[in-house]
Design goal:
Rna Polymerase Sigma Factor, Chain: A; mainly alpha; sigma factor activity; disordered N terminus; RNA polymerase sigma factor, sigma-70 family protein; 2 domains; DNA binding; 183 residues; 0% strand; transcription regulation
């Protein structure tokens, strides 16, 4: 987004509005989705990156030193897009390597006991965190992440607003980040 476009689209926000999650989503999400949509082929990827930008903003321990939340959020969005392009570029390079070349250095396919134990521990931690969510929040999360439904499809199925779906997804993601951040 260029600075003129951002000012017209997002509106001014001081650091205090960062504490109001619904206000943040309502104010910044549509512009972020448009920004990412112009640079990505997938609408789902644009939605995901817009959500990730908002999550990163909310995760900030303090925004007291941020003079312009809008500019700060746009910097986050730009960094996310840059990271996505780097990742996609590195994945394209790996696609051209022969599998035989790569596979010769792989260890046995049999999982080590500690890997199985660690995987089981992480799964149990995830399931416990999932159980801690409210029923509606858990339902929205599972419909989006495991059934692959869009926010609007979830809203129609559950007979709630898209905004309610967004809020529940944000709550779920923040909860998982808090509970599983180190896992």
């Amino acid at each position: 987004m260029n600075s003129g476009e951002a000012g017209d689209t997002l509106g001014a926000c001081d650091a205090s509005c960062a504490a109001d999650l619904p206000l943040l989503i309502a104010r910044y999400r549509p512009a972020l989705v448009r920004y990412f949509s112009r640079h990505l082929q997938s609408a789902d990827d644009a939605e995901d990156l817009a959500q990730e930008a908002l999550v990163r903003l909310v995760r900030m321990p303090s925004l007291s030193g941020v003079l312009n939340v809008e500019a700060f959020l746009l910097q986050i969005a730009s960094n996310l897009l840059r990271d996505r392009f780097r990742r996609d570029k590195s994945h394209q390079v790996l696609q051209h390597v022969s599998i035989d070349e790569v596979a010769k250095d792989w260890p046995s396919e049999d999982p080590h006991g500690e890997c199985v134990y660690e995987g089981n521990r992480r799964l149990q931690a995830f399931l416990a965190a999932l159980d801690e969510l409210s029923p509606r929040c858990r339902q929205v999360f599972l419909l989006q992440r495991y059934e692959g439904l869009t926010y609007s499809a979830i809203a129609k199925r559950l007979e709630i607003s898209v905004s309610a779906v967004e809020k529940n997804m944000m709550r779920a993601l923040l909860h998982f980040d808090t509970r599983l951040g180190g896992s």
